[in-house]
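Deliverable D4.2, example record:
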Amino acid sequence: MISSLRGTVLSASADSIIVEVGGVGFTVAVPADVAHTAHLGEQLRLHTSLIVREDALSLFGFAAPEELEVFGHLLSVTGVGPKSALGVLSHLSVDQIAAAVAADDDAPFRRVSGIGPKTAKLIVVQLAGKLKAPSAAPVAAADLSTETVSQLVAALVGLGWSERVAAEAAERSAAEASETERASVSLLLRRTLATLGPAQAAGQGSARG
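Output generated by the structure prediction step:
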């Protein structure tokens, strides 16, 4: 079992990267945020899960051990395979998944490509009581109205970012923004795009490397 990898990023596409470890290149399927922030030549550590099938060995990697744990829980759900589980973790953070399950809300999962209404409901039902309670949101983010945050996230999603990346970026911007910026969605959007990088926003879905 390959539990983790640490090596040099050789290439990155929309949903996978190649990491060289000891002269061997490993192709690893990763969530969108990892693929979009992996820089060629940099050192990267991933927590991994090796999925063994009759016709293939597939490696899935995550930046945090909590994501790997949730990946395992998702695989235990009837009808959820590795690619679907990775899709969920590309669109939703660990906290967003836990919050949706705790609230018995399958809507966030239905928005993930490849997850139908029946499977979305099964995720909520079968993961109930298995996930850690979501972390408290940053205090600075609470200063913003729900409508403002929703508008910011919607704008980022409209530009091609996944809901997960958009929500996390919105929280970071809220924590770092000035009072003036918090009063304007456009100013917050400008700050957030500056953090994410215009090149990534414009070409999130295209292959890299």
